[in-house]
Amino acid sequence: MRSDSAIMAPVYLPTLDSYGNYMPPRLTSYDVGAARKIYGRRIDGFKGNSNCEVEPCDQNNEETEIFATTKIAPTEEIKTTTASLLTECPENFSAIAADKNTIFVFSNSDLYKIQNRHVVKKGQKGDFNIHWNYSTIIETGYIRNGSLILLDSQKMVFLFDPISGSNEKFQLRNGYPKKTPINMEINGAIVIDNEAHIFGVSNYLIYNERFNNASREYNKRNVFPNFPKIIKGGYSRVENFGTFLTLFGRDDTTKKSQIYRYDMRRKDIVGEPKNMLSYLRNCE
Predict the structure, then answer these.
(1) What pLDDT does residue 176 have?
(2) Staple partner for 76: which of 151, 167, 169, 251, CB 3.0–4.6 Å?
(3) How confident is the model at residue 269 (pLDDT cuts 50, 70, 90)?
(4) Which CATH number does the domain 95-279 belong to among 2.110.10.10, 3.40.1280.10, 3.90.550.10, 3.30.200.20?
(5) Is pLDDT at 75 greater than 90 in this prediction?
(6) What angle do CA 198, 225, 212 make, to 5 degrees?
(7) In the structure, how many helices (H) and strands (E) does the chain have?
(8) Which part of the chain is CATH 2.110.10.10?
(9) Which InterPro entries does the record cross-reference, listed alphabetically (predicted)?
(10) What is the DSSP letter of 71?
């Protein structure tokens, strides 16, 4: 009997979840059974019910799924070992610096690196950034061409470049930090169409870190209706049906950290928001 969930089934299955992240394929018993019909059984193959000759099955003769996981490049261990399931994960965040591939989560004195919705590294801010000033309060940031651009509570901009061969450490670029021309309160930042959008509560502006200049302020509601009030950061991703934003924000009532998915074409939130622990795949 054919299974429509099998990888080899002649039907289209979605490859992205509701947050626009790639979902690894699931190898089902029907895929394994079909392969065995062609290539024969493995010598040390599946040990299931003795009545199962071709398709692997469990004691209840039910379909068994084998998960193909996405490999994450190994990273340096810093103070806390990264395991398949972590008990120390960021429940809340004070700032986010992200692009579509990597998210840096600032949570109290800790800094987390997230890729493919997995925590791959955790440490103190100084473990990532050389000569880090712990009195600095980061409000938001973003990633451009591998460099970290961070904005603090004093509206200063810090530009950290990756150090080649240092296993993911960053160093402050000469001439930084700099005082920005931004006057409004800074909450979050997202790069959209290659432009850094800096968000306040009601307004936003376009900032260029290369020339350290900022546009005039625009009304957030006019261009981004139905946006969460407090956004700490996020990233944009172009998909088949348009551009979607993943927003790391804060619930206006509970003040708890929430993650939203925003459709730029429909100008609205898609689906229900998630908290950080449900967003991450390797946290309890």
Answers:
(1) 95
(2) 167
(3) very high
(4) 2.110.10.10
(5) no
(6) 15
(7) 4, 20
(8) 95-279
(9) Hemopexin-like_dom_sf
(10) P
Q: Provide the residue count of the chain.
A: 284
Strand locations in 62-184 (E): 65-67, 95-98, 103-107, 110-115, 118-124, 138-144, 147-152, 156-162, 170-172, 178-179
* Token code pair at residue 284: 């309890």
Query: Distance between CA atoms of 95 and 203, rounded to whole angstroms?
Result: 18
Query: Cα(114)–Cα(74) distance, rounded to whole angstroms?
Result: 13
pLDDT at 12: 53
Distance CA 96, CA 86 (A): 20
Residue 232 token pair:
């700490």
The SS3 call for residue 177 is coil
Q: How far apart are CA 126 and CA 183, in angstroms?
A: 28
